[in-house]
Design goal:
about 350 residues, alpha/beta, 7-stranded mixed sheet, 13 helices, 15 strands, about 25% helix, globular
């Protein structure tokens, strides 16, 4: 089969690799029908995630069709169309029993495209299939569903839930890429009084407005002043970091109010300065986290009911064999206007221009 293989910092190749096979009775082999690229994949390619070794097939988000299962798999069978979660769960360790699947100590957690071969391939082996794939209703489009593999549960759990968004809150989302836009969408479920989006790209700020941000400001144009003006000098109740760079995190700590919450969602490859000389007196709560995907069934039900505007996040579509071109477009989002790119079979061959907000 063909797959995208990491070959060291700055180097990948779409190449021939052996087909995956069943290694454990809890495994499923899934044919990939739709797959996407995550900002975390870009961090890996840059060398920010040293656990990913050369030779690893990348990717941790996909929708596909089950072609084979191990003897212990009970919830899916060959022919089923499924969502492949970015998190695998053994179901037995302490953390899985607490529904903290991202911290699994039984061989799961974030393993696909990280410590085992991932989804940016024609076929993928999914461990712990009973707890790591979700049968899809026929009414849910594959390209919509693939966004539930990572960005929606990540934004909802690590951003909205960790940040404890409540009715009437002022919420600032720093970074209006796919994760930030999904955070805006799911934060709206809790009726905040104001959502402010911050980004450097005007196309992403426009997308944020279209998805429900009440205000949008370029990160180079003193967003701190806008937050101060909109909160009568108090600061935001909840601030979410959705970029993964030191400057973004440090901005979050400057615009949060006393007693407020900073929810870090971004993947960081460099140290950020924690200004405790300013924060120690402000009763600020800072949370971090890897998604657990405990919310995936809930979000899937909401998508099936038409409550999540997921399709508007996909701006470019490619054939699976155009993986390297898709990476190029996604990595130059400020030039291409890409929010989320999706790849699939020949039946989805068109490459679309960025959607107008």
């Amino acid at each position: 089969m063909k797959a995208l293989v990491f070959q060291g910092p700055g180097q990948t190749a779409w190449q021939d690799v052996p087909d995956p096979g069943i290694k454990d009775a809890a495994d499923a082999i899934v044919r990939v029908d739709a797959v996407t690229i995550c900002g975390t994949d870009l961090h890996i390619v840059k060398g920010d995630v040293p656990e990913v070794v050369p030779g690893r097939i990348l990717g941790h988000e996909a929708v596909g069709t089950v072609v084979e299962t191990g003897g212990d798999v009970r919830t899916v069978r060959p022919g089923d169309r499924v969502l492949i979660s970015c998190i695998s769960a053994c179901g037995r360790c302490r953390f899985c029993r607490e529904a903290r699947y991202g911290q699994c100590r039984g061989g799961g957690g974030w393993v696909l495209g990280h410590t085992i071969d991932g989804t940016q391939a024609e076929y993928v082996r999914v461990p712990f299939a009973d707890l790591s794939v979700y049968p899809l209703p026929s009414a849910v489009d594959s390209y919509d569903a693939v966004l539930l593999a990572d960005i929606f549960p990540t934004s909802y759990e690590v951003g909205v839930l960790n940040g404890r968004v409540r009715p009437g809150d002022t919420v600032v989302v720093v970074g209006a890429g796919p994760i930030g836009l999904a955070a805006i969408t799911t934060a709206r479920l809790y009726s905040p009084s104001c959502i402010i989006a911050v980004d450097l790209a005007e196309s992403r700020l426009a997308a944020a407005r279209s998805l429900g941000a009440d205000a949008a400001v370029n990160a180079a144009e003193e967003p701190e002043r806008l937050v101060e003006d909109l909160t009568e000098g108090l600061g935001a109740d909840v601030v979410m970091e959705a970029v993964g760079v030191p400057e973004a995190f440090e901005m979050c700590t400057r615009v949060v109010r006393p007693g407020g919450r900073v929810a870090n969602i971004g993947v960081h490859g460099k140290p950020a300065t924690l200004h405790l000389e300013d924060l120690w007196i402000k009763d600020v709560t800072i949370t971090t986290g890897l998604v657990d995907t405990h919310s995936t069934p809930l979000l899937l039900r909401m998508m099936a009911a038409g409550r999540l505007p997921s399709s508007s996040l996909i701006t470019h579509r490619f054939e699976l064999g155009q993986m390297e071109e898709a990476y190029e477009v996604f990595s130059r989002a400020s030039d291409t206007g890409a929010l989320k790119v999706a790849l699939g079979g020949p039946q989805h061959t068109a490459v679309t221009a960025p959607a107008e907000p």
